[in-house]
Amino acid sequence: MPHLCLNAISKHFDKFTALDSVSLAIPDGAFLALLGPSGCGKTTLLRLIAGLEHPDQGEIRFDDQLVAGDAVFVPPEKRRVGMVFQSYALWPTMTVRKNIEFGLKVAGLTVQERNQRIDEVLDVVGLRGLDGRRPHELSGGQRQRVALARSLATRPQLILLDEPLANLDAHLREAMLAEFRRIHSLTGATFVFVTHDQDEAMAVATHVAVLDRGRLQQLGTPEELYRQPSSSMVARFIGRGRTLPVQVVESGAGRTKVMLGQQLLDMPGEAPTGYGWLCCHASDFKRVPEGGHLKVELLGQVFQNGVFLSHCLPTEIDGDVVSLPLEERLAPGTSIELVLTGGWVIGDGGTGQTWAGRVTGRSSTCRSAVISVS
Ligand SMILES: Nc1ncnc2c1ncn2[C@@H]1O[C@H](COP(=O)(O)OP(=O)(O)OP(=O)(O)O)[C@@H](O)[C@H]1O
Ligand SMILES: [Mg+2]
């Protein structure tokens, strides 16, 4: 049985639909990252799970317990949920110890139980010895640990983190991410982690949910979202993916024949015949001297991690700019041929982002050989 289960959750603010029939289920002990552009509904979804908002429609269950649904609403203090915000929300005049103790007092624990829990969570977050300090005497990362310790102390079944790293510098974010992962495996609690930053999400999550304009686009493992996106939005959003417009000719048993410009390719994925997308990443392109699947013109290069990350515009189809690492510096305007060594075909249906009319160099004649890409 899933630990957290949302069934067709909708939330409106006046006439605005913040969440539109979102359903998802994650197992006990999962680390779910909620990803999506600003305003897509991530915080609203967390607040609904925490019980800080009422859904207009749908149900929320923790294991087999209905916490929100028809005529049922379990208040936040009875949900055993801990929340950590971007702003830490610590009491500025209280010491670290008092900040952590506050929720335990409210929960009615004895002094002895409270002290035992506080020492336990200070160890977990690595803040032993700093418990007498006030928030202004701590660094940003230490404050974030206090906020996490305060949530962990009440031993919640679910920890909700709303962009907890947004105020930290890049170096500290990385260190704190590793901390979150360690604390997650140590406590065994289920974490739901909201972030703008997909690298952050992919690094820590066991499950990733991508939201767009209040709708769930896809829920899966980081690898599934990267390799098998189910919509063009997810394909572009994850791993700096690119989508090339294709014509789906034939599809079945996990393989699809598509026309990419004048090339007939056999690719992984399934899609209805008609317009579709070929989803790729930089690692799916390889430069060849001639006979490539895609002709492009070099727009520019950036020297990064020892290679020239090269941005190129397809010349025979009206596709997005594609990027790939090249070994050498080349002049802008250079013509390059690329073969595809990987990719994933999806249909165009349901996204409202039809590419009809975008292909400029499409030919009605196929090359006789079908090029198969595994
Ligand atoms: N209390 C509210 N009243 C009216 N509109 C709201 C309210 N809360 C959120 N919204 C709207 O709902 C939408 C989703 O907001 P939400 O805060 O969930 O987005 P988000 O994905 O967390 O964005 P960000 O990444 O910027 O934090 C936004 O358009 C927001 O303006
Ligand atoms: Mg938010």
Automatic annotation (TrEMBL):
<keyword id="KW-0067">ATP-binding</keyword>
<protein>
    <submittedName>
        <fullName>Iron(III) transport system ATP-binding protein</fullName>
    </submittedName>
</protein>
<dbReference type="GO" id="GO:0005524">
    <property type="term" value="F:ATP binding"/>
</dbReference>
<dbReference type="InterPro" id="IPR050093">
    <property type="entry name" value="ABC_SmlMolc_Importer"/>
</dbReference>
<dbReference type="Pfam" id="PF00005">
    <property type="entry name" value="ABC_tran"/>
</dbReference>
<dbReference type="InterPro" id="IPR017871">
    <property type="entry name" value="ABC_transporter-like_CS"/>
</dbReference>
<feature type="domain" description="ABC transporter">
    <location>
        <begin position="4"/>
        <end position="238"/>
    </location>
</feature>
<dbReference type="GO" id="GO:0015697">
    <property type="term" value="P:quaternary ammonium group transport"/>
</dbReference>
<dbReference type="InterPro" id="IPR003439">
    <property type="entry name" value="ABC_transporter-like_ATP-bd"/>
</dbReference>
<dbReference type="InterPro" id="IPR027417">
    <property type="entry name" value="P-loop_NTPase"/>
</dbReference>
<keyword id="KW-0813">Transport</keyword>
<keyword id="KW-0547">Nucleotide-binding</keyword>
<dbReference type="InterPro" id="IPR003593">
    <property type="entry name" value="AAA+_ATPase"/>
</dbReference>
<comment type="similarity">
    <text>Belongs to the ABC transporter superfamily.</text>
</comment>
<dbReference type="GO" id="GO:0016887">
    <property type="term" value="F:ATP hydrolysis activity"/>
</dbReference>
